[in-house]
Specification:
Number of strands: 5
Radius of gyration: 18 Å
Distance between the termini: 18 Å
Number of helices: 7
Structural class: alpha+beta
Strand order of the largest sheet: 2-1-5-4-3
Helix content: 25-40%
Shape: globular
Largest sheet: 5 strands, antiparallel
Length: 222
């Protein structure tokens, strides 16, 4: 489900830059650096404020992208980067739809935020993604219920670049402290599970990466 988002996204507004806030964030970075699991801190736009080495390692093989790198804005990476599905397993159902639900909630709370509005414009430029946002997402949210907006505890598939892990899963753990919440930030850690053992594809059949995206959501008129 990768759509090449065009243009340059607006410059994000920085997190509070008081000495106390910066010192706290620095200590958070030190704590996260000691963690062997991927962990990141994002603001309400999903701009990445902090990310540790394990997070960077997880996405080390993704190609450069002008607006959708995982260490810049995780929302844009999930929705727009062509390589997102090479790391985020079951990309459309397990990652894109939950992220679209998070985006819709953020847009309702911060309707005039220029960064979120730029994401909305990029979604509107792709007919399939726009249909997913307007039609498929409400249906999915009704079917899933409250779980649609709950990140903490969600288990999602991953394709780890380390061959010792390979196809595995992670549980999202929300580790947001009260001070981070006051800054408008969220901290998420991806707790990696043991690798999944999957059967190889039948001989003579090649796995072809489709250029289509959000095939789980029907297009208008289908």
């Amino acid at each position: 489900m990768a759509f090449q988002a065009g243009g340059q996204r607006p410059a994000p507004r920085p997190v509070p830059d008081s000495p106390e806030a910066q010192a706290y964030l620095q200590d958070c970075a030190t704590l996260m650096a000691a963690l062997p699991l991927p962990s990141l801190v994002v603001d309400h736009r999903w701009d990445v404020v902090l990310a540790n080495n394990a997070f960077q390692t997880l996405f080390r093989a993704v190609a450069p992208h002008p607006t959708a790198m995982p260490g810049d804005n995780f929302l844009r990476f999930v929705l727009f980067h062509p390589d997102a599905g090479s790391v985020l397993g079951d990309h459309e159902t397990s990652w894109c739809l939950p992220m679209l639900a998070q985006f819709r909630s953020a847009l309702e709370r911060h309707a005039h935020d220029p960064v979120l509005q730029a994401v909305r414009q990029d979604i509107a430029q792709d007919p399939i993604m726009e249909a997913a946002f307007r039609q498929g997402l409400p249906h999915w949210m009704r079917a899933v219920g409250e779980e649609a907006l709950r990140q903490d505890g969600a288990v999602r598939p991953l394709l780890h670049p380390d061959p010792r892990r390979g196809a595995t899963e992670c549980r999202l753990i929300d580790e947001t402290t009260p001070l981070l919440r006051e800054m408008g930030c969220t901290r998420l850690t991806l707790v990696l599970r043991e690798p999944r053992r999957t059967a190889p594809p039948p001989r003579g059949r090649r796995r072809v990466r489709s250029a289509a995206h959000l095939t789980v959501v029907p297009t208008p008129g289908s």
